[in-house]
Amino acid sequence: MQRITPDCRRPLFDVAATRAFEQAATASLPPHTLMQRAGLAVARLALALAPNAKTVWIACGPGNNGGDGIEAAMHLHRWGKRVVGNWLGDDAKAPADTQASRQRAREAGVAFANEAPAQFDLAIDALLGIGSARPLEGVMAQWAGLMNVGASPVLSVDLPSGLNADTGDGQGVRATHTLSLLALKPGLFTAGGRDAAGQVWFDDLGVPSGPQEPTAWLSGPPSPARRAHASHKGSYGDVAVIGGAPGMTGAALLAASAALHAGAGRVFVGLLDGGLLAVDTTQPDLMLRGWDTLPLAGMSVTCGCGGGDAVRAVLPKVMSAAGRLVLDADALNVIAADLQLQSLLQARSKRGKPTVLTPHPLEAGRLLGCDAAQVQRDRLHAASELAQRFGCVVVLKGSGTAIVMPAQTPRINPTGNARLATAGTGDVLAGMIAARLAFDEAPLDAAADAVYAHGLAADHWPSGLALTASTLARGVWCPAST
Predict the structure, then answer these.
(1) Hey, which bits of 369-413 come out as E strands?
(2) Do residues 210 and 327 share a domain?
């Protein structure tokens, strides 16, 4: 059993793949072995999480997830815990493994009740697991509500009931811990998954995943890289930030500052403010130039941060000329409303020029012609659709940021927290990605590594110190610059 932390890259598998693992294991093992292993793993983790718990409430659904809970109830009862079990199944219709576990639990003396206990020290959610296909209703919804409002820890078996294993959509149990069995599921790490699952644990139950390609990867830390002693500023590339219309120059300067502190050799800023700002006295190492004087073909360009409507006029040249390009914020909004600009974006892919789009869900919805809620219902699908349409890397921001590129396995970022929910942090991320592209990293790696570092900076933020975009830009952690 492993505690899942952000420091290790891990494969994620959808429901179809998980069921295939389960079927293969069931066929190769003695009857009921898999459920017995699952129940024992749940019971062991429950005991480790709440060793002093007197009353353990185990809410079991009618399927195999409920069978895992029943098996765990038997072990906890034998270990001296007061177990209050609820089961919503029917002995005549229950799966064979669940029937066998029911019989074992009865023989061990486990009593099952119709009502939830008034008080409990630990709740185990074994209602649905990956069987969640629709919102919880009736008794299941009632029991989920009791778990969510109680002060005691909640351990979900395989997946918080009510959560979609593939997408992270849905509402139901909000666990403090989740023990994922056989395979880690994408929905645990994106959309509502991180809030619903709490701390994720994993047990493969002794069943290897085999050679099957993962549905996605949980990103790990960037590979350490060190600057050669015999190097110079030209060794680390030039970044150009184009944006900052009147009243919004701060967004462009934030992106430029982030690129600088992420290790770019030189950072140029082409503001769209009509020449009102000639120098940033707080960061004189940023070089302000007319955007149309910059040699974009040899640069890593970020365009759109604070660009307003003024960015519309510069996008045709930027998309045609830039060697490596990050499109963010207002650039994405303008492209979403202009078919000609969309064609220019698609043409970059055909010419082999790397492009990274960094939309939040509302911007992604505009590009796809849908609303943000539809994007959030299946974030991996939305990001993949954008990547295929425009032939580029897509960084769909939000909880469990999705990083997707055509013909590559998607990645989900494990770092970051709600401190990033403040104005300007997206501009910082755009600058960080541009810096990594300037190092000549592969586009998918550059995007994933920057997203990881961006979130990690928030995770390591000093307690009691407010996170603002300007301080984040100066505090980004970048292995390539160490």
Answers:
(1) 393-396, 402-404, 411-412
(2) no
